[in-house]
User: Fold these one by one.
Assistant:
Number 1:
Amino acid sequence: MKQIQLKKVSKNFGATEVIPPLDLDIEDGEFVVFVGPSGCGKSTLLRLIAGLEDVTSGQILINGKDATEMPPASRGLAMVFQSYALYPHMSVRKNIAFPLRMIGMPKDEQAKRVDEAAKVLNLTEYLDRRPGQLSGGQRQRVAIGRAIVREPTAFLFDEPLSNLDAALRVGMRLEISELHKRLDTTMIYVTHDQVEAMTMADKIVVLQSGVIEQVGTPLDLYHNPRNTFVAGFIGSPKMNLLTGKEAEKHGAHTIGIRPEHLTISTKKGGWEGTVGVSEHLGSDTFIHVECKAFDETLTVRASGEMDLSYGSKVYLTPDASNLHKFDENGMRMS
Amino acid sequence: MATQHSRSIARMMLAPATTLLLAWMLIPLIMTLYFSFKKYLPLRGGDLGWVGFDNYVRFISSSAFWPAVATTLIIVGGVLLITILLGILLALLLDQPIWGQGVVRILVIAPFFVMPTVSGLVWKNMFMDPVNGFFAHIWRVFGAEPIQWLSHASMPSLVMIISWQWLPFATLILLTAIQSLDSEQIEAAEMDGAKPLSRFFFIILPHLARAITVVVLIQTIFLLSIFAEIFVTTAGAFGTKTLTYLIFQRVLESQNVGLGSAGGVYAIILANIVAIFLMRIVGKNLDR
């Protein structure tokens, strides 16, 4: 069932068009991630769905009903903000209960729901503290708690993990994914981090300057990027995108090959190059190879034990079945 | 030791300023205390010797003392109430994006730049004059008898004048506080289903608590010593005699420096009592 539908939705700020008309369907229970570089309009798109910004033209349907003109509160969506936006003068309990208090729910019912949410999020012992006395991760959980208690039709997350340190981010990423599995509610998640997108999403929406570049499952985007932008954006480290004679040999304007689909050898292979910097991660080694054929640096993933000295001569061989070809407009050729 | 050295030099460098400040505060205080125990009548014999607590007893037992204390507190309380209520409303208005925002904000601040004597005279002669005042004209337009503002409604008039002067200060501080409110908090409240009025009472007002505290504390300090506005309008008549004004009368009109000094000491005590109460009530807002 299509739960949230955007029909020809566009947004202008004054004379500048931030989002040209776009269509998007979000299914019930799906975890959708909007991903793109900063300034690509992904947060604006989320705010349009939330109702915090008015659409310039087009229509937003939520559960089949036209929500274009509805105020944010009546859309039945809950949002978790980047800054958490907790109310600093209220205790955690009151913060979580705030949306319930606003709809005039009886006190004992409120308390029951708050306790439930606190238990789910491991916040029970912090209920009487103020947000200022909590750590970043705990504040994040309070913000999620405030969203859960409303039992919304969908959750909206606006870069919720960008204020957390790397270790905590990995933990919270898991917690949110787990929450999604447990609640089975639609979630729309905005991030600029493609790792978050890949690990959490059922469906990724890649945006660039307000335009949807591709929509698909994480692996679909990984294996079949529709254009060079998606190819370069999804996957870490980035896909090597190469132009020139070697590309023309394959009948394409640009060829793309992921670091993990290149084999490195000191003896023979397709492309000759010299070793630059090697990044040792333990499990893998990322080697930057200066390639004469392209006049460019390619990234290669090798095994963790691989040890090549700076400046030594190597040969790279691409895995032909994983070679991506793009035409001069950057679109995929198949 | 470099730090030891620089610390003692720092102390030496600070010494002139500290000494000056100390003298500035201590000399008048000591002189007030000194005179308050003397019978000192400059035009009627000068220094007539020590009298112990005589001045204190006479000042407090005067029939004008308690009314003066009451007047002082009413002015402070009234002005605080009006400036904070209107200040919040004005700050909310000025926070809205409007055309010519900069000019409007400067205009709102303008009354603060008008000297107290000038504003007192302008209000007395141009607004509140029962014959030619602006208000008298308005009253006559509706066929009503003009109010003799400064004689028949002396306290409301004074509170009005002083509020007008202090409203910009309150507005300015509250406006900056409103502007510092994280817009995501308001948006979160909006998503949580809070109507504009609930947003104000649950989010904006608690956010303003600290700024309101600052306004209350600073204004109280200045309002306790209000003088010029009373001097140029009612000259202490019609029940507008504050403690400050009473002291002025004792010293300059009755030429009794000793009695006035004793009043000054009472004023210090009153200010401290008010300060203690304020810190009890609102001071905890500053801890957060």
Number 2:
Amino acid sequence: MLKHPILRQTRFILFLSVLLSVFLLSACQSNTTLPAPTVAHQPVDVVEPLTTDPAPIDSETQTPGELPTETLAVTTEVPKPSSTPSPTPTPEDFWQELPVIPTELSDKMREVYQKGIAMGNDPHTFTKLGDCNSMSPDFLHGFGGMYDLGKDYAYLQPAIDYFQKSFRLANQSTNPGTTTSRLLVSLWTNDLCKRDEIMLDCQYRLDNPSIAIIALGTIDAKYHQQDPEAYERNLRIIIESTLERGIVPVLATKADNIEGDNSINATIARLAMEYELPLWNFWKAVQPLENHGLKPDGEHLNSWSGPPATDFSLPISMEYGKEVKNITALQMLNFLMQQLADPAERVSPTPAS
Amino acid sequence: MIKFKTTFIAVFILSAILLASCAASSSPAEAVSAYWEAMVAKDKAQLSALSCSDYEAEALTTMESFGAFEPVLSNLECSVLETSGDSATVQCGGTIEVSYGAEVLKIDLSERNYAVEKESGDWRMCGTK
């Protein structure tokens, strides 16, 4: 079976060419392991359809009928709304006993505030960081001109006067779906922000506030089981960045318990204590309310009067989440004004009648 | 001898084609496209691999910022604006949309240009320009 030398050489070259092709193809593949162009299909849990709550008026953009299209990337048990009383507090639940509005402010926060004023922060300006439950016009916006404090809350008028310019400031840090991580990247900013400026920095630069109301955690809770460390890690960054700017961070607990074990509220309260920050324990304020002031989805606050939810002329207003959120936020601002503001610059608050 | 020459030329052409396709798939524009694909797929490993070392942390936080929601990437097309050695600038068209009930937030990817650099032989996303 002797073959012609040229034939043998050709076969050898062919063999080499196949080897070379295989080698090149494999090398090529290892260099360009591009991800699949489709959205990852992780185990999902479709949010159950919501029923419309006929009693309270609500202008929430996330209408109940739309939510079933929204999916969660993690199998999280969304708690069913319950009006049953909370279990007996354990040491882990220490935060549940903290007052809605603190009774005193730490010396550290007074120093931070004074440092901020010296740096040029505006004493009459607060800003807010939050999700859809903190958006305008439902949250605080109404105090900019469309409100009725009634008799019970007339004593808060000086706080409205003092912070007048803040209530209707444009705000990009309170949006549907806002999480702690969204504030720390530049992807979601609008054209008022600089290139590569993260949302937190941009909001602070635009508003130049002396106080920041930080009401985050509801949306983070949906991602919590995938990365339980993320919320605290991000909140610490936000707190420290806020303090560095001489802005007093006000941490707010949330009304919901989407994460299932209230661990996000516990984290909020723990960090407030660690950094000596004022804690607005909104969770406590909604405990007496039916369904804890939440719509049947266990996430969005309900409302009596519709936007801007700042009509307190009748006692019934205090039976709904958005109204309680607005009035307790105003109480917090009033408290901070009393504690921090230059007495010459503020109207003396009148006592509640 | 003619057969030998033909085979040699065929192998040469095949190799050239394969090498060219290799280079094309790791171009700066393709790196940015792959980055956004990995972002919406929430593919942490790919996102890390496609980001330069200085930008990796921000890329992962950006991915985290989508939370539990599923972003949808549409009409993505990227092209190189300029290349200078191991650095390049890429522009993209397309959007990322995230639905929150009735409200849809849309991110227009054409609002920024993207900085791309070659690290360890691969083009990687290094932020915006």
